[in-house]
Fold:
Amino acid sequence: MNPSAEQELAIDLQRLGQDACIVAGPGSGKTAVVVERYTRLVLQSGLMPSQILAITFTEKAAASMKKRIADEFAERDLPLDDAPIHTIDGFCARLVKENAVLAGVDPDFTVLDERLGAIERSRCAAQALDELLLERRELMLELARTRTEPSLATCLVDVYETIRSSGAALDSLSDIAEPGLSAWNGILTLLGKYKLASVAARSEPQRRQREQVLAFFEKLRGIDPLAQPVEALRVLADPGFKLNARISDSCHEILQQARELLPEAQAVLVSLWSRPYRLLLCDALLRFDQVYAARKRVLGVLDFADLIAHAVRLLEEYPRVRERIAQQYEQVFMDEFQDTNQVQEKFLRLLRNSGNFYAVGDVNQSIFGFRHALPEVFLRHRDAVHESGQHHCELTDNWRSRAAILRAAECITAGQPGVEPRRLIPRRELPPRNEPCVETLVAQHEENAPEIEAQLVAARILELHATLRLGPESRPARFQDFAILFRGAESHMPRFAAALDRAGIPHLLTRRAKFFEERDVTDLLCVLETIANPRDEIATAAVLRGPLVGVSDETLLALHQSGSLAAGLDALRADGPGALDHGDWGSLLTFRQNLSAWRLAQPHLAPDRLLLRVLDACGQVLDPRTRSTANIEKFFSVLRSYPANLPLRELCDHLRRMQQTNAREMDAPVDDELDAVRLLTAHASKGLEFPVVILPALDAGMEQRGAPLTFHPEHGLGASWNDPAGSSLKACPDYIGWRNAQAASKRDKEESGRLLYVALTRAEEHLVLSWSSKDGKHREWAGIVAPALACDQLIPDAPPQIRECQSPAGEPFPVRGEWITQPRTTWAGASAAAAPADPEFLPPPEPGGRYDATASVTSLTQFAACPRKYYLARYLEVESAPRPVRLSSLEDDDPPEPRLDAGELGTQVHDLLAGLRVPNADPQAAIMAERFRHSDLGRRAARAARSEREYAFLLDIEDVIVSGTIDLWFDDGAGLILVDYKTDDVTAAEAEVRAAEYALQLRLYALALEHAEQRRPTAAYLHFLRPDVVIEISLGDDPAAEAARAVRRLRDAQEQCDFPLHEGPQCRRCPFYKGVCPAGTAQLPVLI
Structure:
């Protein structure tokens, strides 16, 4: 790195021994500065990497920092062993592990997975409320009647997380002093002044208003608010007058001031009335904390909040621990310090020595308040460093964006709450541009403004894609250079995605929230809910109407005539559709039969395996190249992360809560190299940069939901209640809740300004700002952008216009603008090559490709052994005759033959080995499962650090999607081991021959595992459980080539409809032998 003069000031090792605060603006090279200072501390100051502690907020950021430092060290042939670069959670976990006895925790504790933690917290909150209901039934029932939210347990969990992030003690929540009556008394004082005013009413409305105000005054004077809070609320709810008859300016001002005091007075009265219920809420939180703590002790786990709480307590209460840590780390780095909360700040303060703390951040980029980040933490540190004359430096050089983009960002955010004025100096060298690099697009229409805006954005992307030149080399723009950043209202994303589809523009939605609202995910969740409870009308309707069944609305209505959809399904006749559509009738009959089978299988199958059966039965093909399949695979991964014994209904309830609370689950990953426009939220864009940034829907606000329970470190616990006076259907906050809401409103406004600042400064070379309006007024962010960039000067429906704007420092910059009021019928402005062309009619293709798009590993193995058997079983679905059981295949200690057929027996064995509950398991299945557990492979798998059972996968081989499920793989340090257990009816002598038939299956499994783990399995084993024989299978020299040959042979056979017979000794075991298969017409060798 060749640091600039400004960056040298930030790196400056001459100021070692001073605390530092580096204010790093967007595009200032912050990470490069941190890496360079770290490197110089080792090279020039003689510190070892182990003496420098670097802390970040995410695993991704920590890995990125470590890689960049490692690259720097590698260039100088320096080792980077054991460099402590951690997240805060990771470092706290390490500290608590090392001092587990002092911390009072199990030394073998594990960190509770966040998803599982959410389940445990939900359960514990419900248990705490149940316990209180038994102890104080009447008061708890009264509390339930006062609440506005559907689930008090959920509210307790939400506010509990907020309280813990602040470091507040739960047992201090009830110590808050009662609010005074200053607002109530203030209203009385003001109305008294109004009564004494000598101004006479000059009209009938004025006289009537005066009488109403005085009557209201007398009512208030006759009420004791301490003794009659509900009556006082009833009077305040309807003052009986309006401020529409001005008697005089002074009287009007008096009444206006009195009205402004009403919300506070009402909140105080609600507090007086709700005091016993509020104390009960505090008790409920304490009880929840106790139940949750006990549950974690039983599980031997700590959650993330526990880690930092224990770490803080260790450093506070044990000076020796603190001294050891202080001596161990000579320098402490903290990246993104503006995103720190109060507990984290306290931990960092205890962790560091005076003069060794190097904090980097930017208060203007603090946008994670919903994660309890407090920008005040950064501001306090910055001010303390500056006032004490220590190492304070501002990085204002911007190495990312063109000058006009920076001037526009300064102009737009000037004076916005939460955004500090800071001049950004452009340093990136780029070729000059003749056209403006900042532009606005405004769509105005009474009915279709949002759709016109989306169409306008798509058209502009096409035009820029065809004309824009980017980078120092002036290369043509690619679609992957464009990013569309949304404020957060992701309901707008589909509209713009649809417009891009219509324009033929490839795009990717890379959202960080609402993964659980993806259509593929909601469909599968509704399937699980229907299986769990077929009388769930909403879920069943979604499944029937959705792509898996696909019946019409008319059919749904007809089904519902029976009283419910479940009753309608039960009443379906098998002899004819009656009044139903014939196609829908057939689909419903199939679904009813499948639903019964799925419900029977559900107790024995993991949810992901159950859904695979559903998708297979509904004929759904999973193409691994699509986002739909990626999301389905991720959903399966989410399902696998839950406990195996979790009831399906409880699992569905938890997933639905995650969906309703906008659980922030990253979408399934897609190929970053795809040439496609990115659509993501402004929050998700933090830390990223794009050549072209489009900020659409600036007129849309953020979704605001008032929480029923709130907490603020300075105010305490607040709540909203049902109106005790019964005069309003709205929730009424108590005094603390009212103050918390005011503080939250202020914080949201400030964070909104900072989010706009972050979004604007992601753009490197071109910035497009767009919004819609039905009446020509500019709202939300549009109301900030429009005046700043002189948008009212635009002439509607005129050609693009260029106007000159000025930054706060008076520097001019050009802005291009359009104001459109009509939908476009053509892609105006796009080049002929980019615009959708007239259709070209091609001759019909030659017949070909008549092969299945999907195949299972079992099918490929069966086809390789005997194409005719595959054809009879898979294509014609011929029922096989039951085969007699050979007594010679049973060992002496085997129990009598199972009551199940071979398929059901195999399923039970696999379920038992996967750890699933199998009611009334067959004795033979139980014995075979135990054989594996006590085998050498079973014991190795149990001891392995990593293992997966029933591991489902998809492979794209020769344009065929190959699916399969690996019984077991594990990594025990000796290598990556693949295991497949078989329940085949074979003897020990036959096992070797039979194993050869499964060699292809094991090699396909090995290929899938190699794709997933990025390394080849060390060994693969078949365990025949009946004779208890284990055989190692050679994985061959080139399993990928062998897999391709197997798929091609199957594909060719399907195209030519040619499935020859492979006649041999194995035919005697075939269920079609001497039946529908011609094998057996000649004498076959006898099996030895």
